[in-house]
Amino acid sequence: MAVLAVDLGGTSMRAARTEADGALRHRCELPTPRTPRAGPLVELMEEVLAAGAVEGAVVGVPGRVEYGTGRLEHAPNLPPGWVDELCEDELGDRLGIDVALANDADLAAVGEAWFGAGRHHRDVAYVTVSTGIGAGVVTGGLLVHGRRSLVEVGHTIIDWRGVPSGRATVEQLGSGTALRVLAAEAGLAADGQEVERRWRAGDPVATAVWEAVVAVAATAVVNVAQLFVPEIIVVGGGVGLVGEAVLGPMRDLLARWGPAGLPEPIEVVNAALGDDAALAGAAAWRRAFSPAAASRMSSR
Fold it and tell me: What is the DSSP string of 119-171?
Protein backbone atom coordinates (compact mmCIF):
# COMPACT_ATOMS: atom_id res chain seq x y z
CA MET A 1 0.00 0.00 0.00
CA ALA A 2 1.09 3.58 -0.61
CA VAL A 3 2.55 5.91 2.00
CA LEU A 4 1.59 9.55 2.52
CA ALA A 5 4.91 11.36 2.11
CA VAL A 6 5.69 14.94 3.11
CA ASP A 7 8.76 17.08 2.54
CA LEU A 8 8.43 20.23 4.62
CA GLY A 9 10.97 22.93 3.80
CA GLY A 10 11.55 26.49 4.85
CA THR A 11 10.45 27.71 1.41
CA SER A 12 7.93 25.12 0.22
CA MET A 13 6.06 22.07 1.43
CA ARG A 14 5.38 19.03 -0.76
CA ALA A 15 3.18 16.00 -0.26
CA ALA A 16 2.40 12.91 -2.34
CA ARG A 17 1.21 9.31 -2.28
CA THR A 18 4.40 7.28 -2.60
CA GLU A 19 4.22 3.73 -3.91
CA ALA A 20 6.47 0.88 -2.73
CA ASP A 21 8.86 1.45 -5.66
CA GLY A 22 9.24 5.15 -4.88
CA ALA A 23 6.84 6.31 -7.60
CA LEU A 24 4.77 9.38 -6.71
CA ARG A 25 1.06 9.95 -7.18
CA HIS A 26 -1.11 12.96 -6.37
CA ARG A 27 1.89 15.22 -5.74
CA CYS A 28 1.01 18.64 -4.28
CA GLU A 29 3.26 21.60 -3.51
CA LEU A 30 2.61 24.94 -1.82
CA PRO A 31 4.77 27.73 -0.37
CA THR A 32 5.46 27.21 3.32
CA PRO A 33 3.31 29.86 5.04
CA ARG A 34 4.64 31.95 7.90
CA THR A 35 1.57 31.27 10.02
CA PRO A 36 2.03 30.62 13.75
CA ARG A 37 0.36 27.20 13.54
CA ALA A 38 1.00 24.16 11.35
CA GLY A 39 -2.61 23.86 10.19
CA PRO A 40 -1.80 24.49 6.49
CA LEU A 41 0.54 21.49 6.49
CA VAL A 42 -2.17 19.25 7.92
CA GLU A 43 -4.59 20.52 5.28
CA LEU A 44 -2.10 19.67 2.54
CA MET A 45 -1.72 16.16 3.95
CA GLU A 46 -5.50 15.75 4.13
CA GLU A 47 -5.76 16.73 0.47
CA VAL A 48 -3.44 13.88 -0.52
CA LEU A 49 -5.05 11.50 1.97
CA ALA A 50 -8.41 12.08 0.27
CA ALA A 51 -7.02 10.38 -2.86
CA GLY A 52 -7.08 6.97 -1.16
CA ALA A 53 -6.07 4.87 1.82
CA VAL A 54 -2.42 4.72 2.89
CA GLU A 55 -0.56 2.50 5.35
CA GLY A 56 0.80 5.53 7.17
CA ALA A 57 2.65 8.80 6.71
CA VAL A 58 6.30 9.84 6.79
CA VAL A 59 6.89 13.56 7.34
CA GLY A 60 10.30 15.03 6.53
CA VAL A 61 11.08 18.18 8.52
CA PRO A 62 13.98 20.65 8.25
CA GLY A 63 15.50 20.29 11.66
CA ARG A 64 16.73 18.01 14.41
CA VAL A 65 14.38 15.12 15.12
CA GLU A 66 14.32 13.13 18.35
CA TYR A 67 13.65 9.72 16.85
CA GLY A 68 13.05 8.09 20.23
CA THR A 69 9.92 10.15 20.87
CA GLY A 70 9.12 11.24 17.32
CA ARG A 71 9.39 14.97 17.97
CA LEU A 72 10.92 17.88 16.12
CA GLU A 73 13.28 19.60 18.56
CA HIS A 74 14.80 22.46 16.60
CA ALA A 75 14.00 23.95 13.18
CA PRO A 76 15.39 27.47 12.62
CA ASN A 77 13.86 27.81 9.13
CA LEU A 78 10.26 27.16 10.25
CA PRO A 79 7.90 29.49 12.12
CA PRO A 80 8.54 28.95 15.86
CA GLY A 81 5.01 27.78 16.63
CA TRP A 82 5.29 24.83 14.26
CA VAL A 83 7.95 23.00 16.26
CA ASP A 84 5.57 22.07 19.09
CA GLU A 85 2.94 20.73 16.67
CA LEU A 86 5.27 18.63 14.53
CA CYS A 87 5.40 15.39 16.44
CA GLU A 88 4.25 11.90 15.53
CA ASP A 89 1.49 11.62 18.15
CA GLU A 90 -0.01 15.03 17.43
CA LEU A 91 -0.06 14.58 13.65
CA GLY A 92 -1.28 11.00 13.97
CA ASP A 93 -4.22 12.05 16.14
CA ARG A 94 -5.18 14.84 13.73
CA LEU A 95 -4.99 12.65 10.62
CA GLY A 96 -6.13 9.32 12.06
CA ILE A 97 -3.15 7.38 10.67
CA ASP A 98 0.27 6.25 11.86
CA VAL A 99 2.85 9.03 11.35
CA ALA A 100 6.65 8.81 11.40
CA LEU A 101 8.70 11.99 11.67
CA ALA A 102 12.06 12.22 9.87
CA ASN A 103 14.77 14.77 9.31
CA ASP A 104 14.29 15.89 5.70
CA ALA A 105 17.91 15.29 4.65
CA ASP A 106 17.81 11.83 6.24
CA LEU A 107 14.65 11.08 4.28
CA ALA A 108 16.16 12.36 1.01
CA ALA A 109 19.30 10.30 1.65
CA VAL A 110 17.14 7.20 1.92
CA GLY A 111 15.29 8.14 -1.28
CA GLU A 112 18.48 8.58 -3.29
CA ALA A 113 20.10 5.47 -1.76
CA TRP A 114 17.17 3.21 -2.58
CA PHE A 115 15.68 4.73 -5.74
CA GLY A 116 17.99 7.46 -7.05
CA ALA A 117 21.61 8.27 -7.81
CA GLY A 118 22.94 6.08 -4.99
CA ARG A 119 20.96 2.93 -5.72
CA HIS A 120 24.04 1.04 -7.00
CA HIS A 121 26.18 2.00 -3.98
CA ARG A 122 26.30 0.79 -0.39
CA ASP A 123 27.55 4.00 1.23
CA VAL A 124 25.68 7.14 0.20
CA ALA A 125 25.79 10.69 1.54
CA TYR A 126 23.18 13.29 0.64
CA VAL A 127 23.78 17.02 1.02
CA THR A 128 21.06 19.60 0.40
CA VAL A 129 21.95 23.22 -0.36
CA SER A 130 18.72 25.15 -0.19
CA THR A 131 17.16 27.63 2.28
CA GLY A 132 19.43 25.87 4.74
CA ILE A 133 22.06 23.14 4.45
CA GLY A 134 21.55 19.61 5.70
CA ALA A 135 22.94 16.14 5.19
CA GLY A 136 22.05 12.51 5.68
CA VAL A 137 24.12 9.34 5.33
CA VAL A 138 23.11 5.78 4.47
CA THR A 139 25.82 3.18 4.99
CA GLY A 140 25.41 -0.53 4.37
CA GLY A 141 21.70 0.02 3.81
CA LEU A 142 21.03 1.67 7.16
CA LEU A 143 20.53 5.32 7.96
CA VAL A 144 23.21 6.82 10.18
CA HIS A 145 21.39 8.10 13.27
CA GLY A 146 21.30 7.86 17.01
CA ARG A 147 18.58 8.85 19.42
CA ARG A 148 18.45 11.99 17.31
CA SER A 149 19.05 12.80 13.66
CA LEU A 150 22.73 13.39 12.99
CA VAL A 151 25.03 14.88 10.30
CA GLU A 152 23.88 18.46 10.96
CA VAL A 153 26.70 19.82 8.81
CA GLY A 154 24.83 23.08 8.21
CA HIS A 155 25.25 24.08 11.84
CA THR A 156 28.95 23.28 12.07
CA ILE A 157 31.30 26.25 12.50
CA ILE A 158 33.36 26.94 9.41
CA ASP A 159 34.74 30.40 10.25
CA TRP A 160 35.80 30.84 13.86
CA ARG A 161 36.40 34.53 13.20
CA GLY A 162 32.68 35.00 12.58
CA VAL A 163 31.60 33.56 15.93
CA PRO A 164 31.42 36.95 17.73
CA SER A 165 29.21 38.40 14.99
CA GLY A 166 26.95 35.36 14.82
CA ARG A 167 27.84 34.45 11.26
CA ALA A 168 30.15 31.46 11.38
CA THR A 169 28.33 28.29 10.32
CA VAL A 170 28.08 26.49 7.00
CA GLU A 171 24.40 27.40 6.75
CA GLN A 172 24.98 31.06 7.58
CA LEU A 173 27.67 31.36 4.91
CA GLY A 174 26.88 28.75 2.25
CA SER A 175 23.11 28.36 1.85
CA GLY A 176 20.47 29.90 -0.38
CA THR A 177 19.64 32.23 2.50
CA ALA A 178 23.29 33.27 2.72
CA LEU A 179 23.30 33.93 -1.02
CA ARG A 180 20.42 36.37 -0.66
CA VAL A 181 21.84 38.05 2.46
CA LEU A 182 25.34 38.52 1.02
CA ALA A 183 23.88 39.82 -2.24
CA ALA A 184 21.87 42.44 -0.38
CA GLU A 185 24.94 43.48 1.62
CA ALA A 186 26.82 43.87 -1.67
CA GLY A 187 24.10 46.14 -3.03
CA LEU A 188 22.29 43.55 -5.17
CA ALA A 189 18.53 43.38 -4.65
CA ALA A 190 18.38 39.84 -5.99
CA ASP A 191 17.36 36.35 -5.00
CA GLY A 192 19.55 33.31 -5.59
CA GLN A 193 18.39 32.74 -9.17
CA GLU A 194 19.10 36.35 -10.10
CA VAL A 195 22.54 36.22 -8.48
CA GLU A 196 23.26 33.10 -10.53
CA ARG A 197 22.07 34.79 -13.73
CA ARG A 198 24.26 37.83 -13.10
CA TRP A 199 27.22 35.58 -12.26
CA ARG A 200 26.82 33.79 -15.57
CA ALA A 201 26.64 37.16 -17.31
CA GLY A 202 29.96 38.18 -15.77
CA ASP A 203 28.75 40.70 -13.19
CA PRO A 204 31.78 41.07 -10.85
CA VAL A 205 29.73 41.72 -7.70
CA ALA A 206 27.43 38.76 -8.32
CA THR A 207 30.46 36.63 -9.15
CA ALA A 208 32.12 37.40 -5.82
CA VAL A 209 28.94 36.56 -3.89
CA TRP A 210 28.22 33.38 -5.85
CA GLU A 211 31.75 32.01 -5.61
CA ALA A 212 31.97 32.73 -1.87
CA VAL A 213 28.74 30.88 -1.10
CA VAL A 214 29.53 27.93 -3.36
CA ALA A 215 33.00 27.63 -1.80
CA VAL A 216 31.42 27.20 1.63
CA ALA A 217 28.93 24.62 0.32
CA ALA A 218 31.83 22.76 -1.26
CA THR A 219 33.67 22.77 2.05
CA ALA A 220 30.62 21.20 3.68
CA VAL A 221 30.76 18.38 1.12
CA VAL A 222 34.45 17.79 1.85
CA ASN A 223 33.77 17.69 5.59
CA VAL A 224 31.01 15.09 5.09
CA ALA A 225 33.40 13.08 2.91
CA GLN A 226 36.11 13.11 5.55
CA LEU A 227 33.69 12.09 8.31
CA PHE A 228 31.91 9.24 6.50
CA VAL A 229 33.99 8.39 3.36
CA PRO A 230 30.96 7.52 1.20
CA GLU A 231 31.19 6.06 -2.28
CA ILE A 232 28.97 8.81 -3.63
CA ILE A 233 27.77 12.22 -2.48
CA VAL A 234 24.39 13.21 -3.88
CA VAL A 235 23.65 16.95 -3.93
CA GLY A 236 20.14 18.38 -3.91
CA GLY A 237 18.25 21.51 -2.91
CA GLY A 238 17.39 24.68 -4.78
CA VAL A 239 21.00 25.84 -5.02
CA GLY A 240 22.53 22.37 -5.13
CA LEU A 241 20.51 21.38 -8.19
CA VAL A 242 21.88 24.25 -10.29
CA GLY A 243 24.33 21.72 -11.72
CA GLU A 244 27.97 22.01 -12.67
CA ALA A 245 28.19 25.58 -11.38
CA VAL A 246 27.94 24.02 -7.92
CA LEU A 247 29.15 20.45 -8.50
CA GLY A 248 32.36 21.52 -10.25
CA PRO A 249 33.77 23.48 -7.29
CA MET A 250 32.69 20.66 -4.97
CA ARG A 251 34.60 18.06 -7.01
CA ASP A 252 37.66 20.31 -7.27
CA LEU A 253 37.82 20.92 -3.52
CA LEU A 254 37.16 17.25 -2.79
CA ALA A 255 40.06 16.25 -5.05
CA ARG A 256 42.41 18.52 -3.07
CA TRP A 257 41.11 18.11 0.49
CA GLY A 258 39.02 14.95 0.52
CA PRO A 259 39.97 11.51 1.87
CA ALA A 260 43.32 10.42 0.45
CA GLY A 261 44.39 7.03 -0.85
CA LEU A 262 40.98 5.80 -2.03
CA PRO A 263 41.05 3.22 -4.84
CA GLU A 264 38.32 5.19 -6.60
CA PRO A 265 37.38 8.86 -6.17
CA ILE A 266 34.16 9.74 -4.39
CA GLU A 267 31.50 10.61 -6.95
CA VAL A 268 29.66 13.93 -6.63
CA VAL A 269 26.40 14.06 -8.55
CA ASN A 270 23.05 15.78 -8.49
CA ALA A 271 20.04 14.08 -6.97
CA ALA A 272 18.49 11.84 -9.62
CA LEU A 273 15.11 12.39 -7.98
CA GLY A 274 15.52 16.16 -7.81
CA ASP A 275 13.18 17.84 -5.35
CA ASP A 276 11.29 14.58 -4.87
CA ALA A 277 14.09 12.64 -3.15
CA ALA A 278 12.53 12.94 0.30
CA LEU A 279 9.07 12.05 -0.98
CA ALA A 280 10.42 8.90 -2.60
CA GLY A 281 12.39 8.05 0.53
CA ALA A 282 9.17 7.61 2.47
CA ALA A 283 8.60 4.30 0.66
CA ALA A 284 11.79 2.83 2.15
CA TRP A 285 11.88 4.71 5.45
CA ARG A 286 11.02 1.83 7.76
CA ARG A 287 13.32 -0.51 5.85
CA ALA A 288 16.20 1.96 6.23
CA PHE A 289 15.85 1.70 10.01
CA SER A 290 15.70 -2.11 10.11
CA PRO A 291 18.56 -4.63 10.31
CA ALA A 292 17.09 -6.40 7.27
CA ALA A 293 17.93 -3.38 5.15
CA ALA A 294 21.64 -3.88 5.78
CA SER A 295 21.62 -7.43 4.44
CA ARG A 296 19.74 -6.31 1.36
CA MET A 297 22.28 -3.60 0.56
CA SER A 298 25.26 -5.84 1.33
CA SER A 299 24.19 -8.20 -1.44
CA ARG A 300 24.65 -5.49 -4.06
Answer: TT-SEEEEEEESSSEEEEEEETTEE-BSSBB---GGGSBS-GGGTTTT--BHH
CA 255 to chain centre: 23
Side chain identity at residue 9, one-letter code: G
Pick the CATH number of 108-276 from 3.40.50.300, 3.40.1190.20, 2.170.120.30, 3.30.420.40: 3.30.420.40
Q: Where in the chain is the domain with CATH 3.30.420.40?
A: 3-103, 108-276
Label the pairing between strands 123-129 and 64-66: unpaired
Residues in the chain predicted with pLDDT less than 70, given as ranges, are: 290-300
pLDDT digits (tens, 9 = 90+) for 151-183: 999 999 999 999 999 999 999 999 999 999 999
Q: What is the pLDDT of residues 59-81, one digit of tens each?
A: 999 999 999 899 999 998 898 88
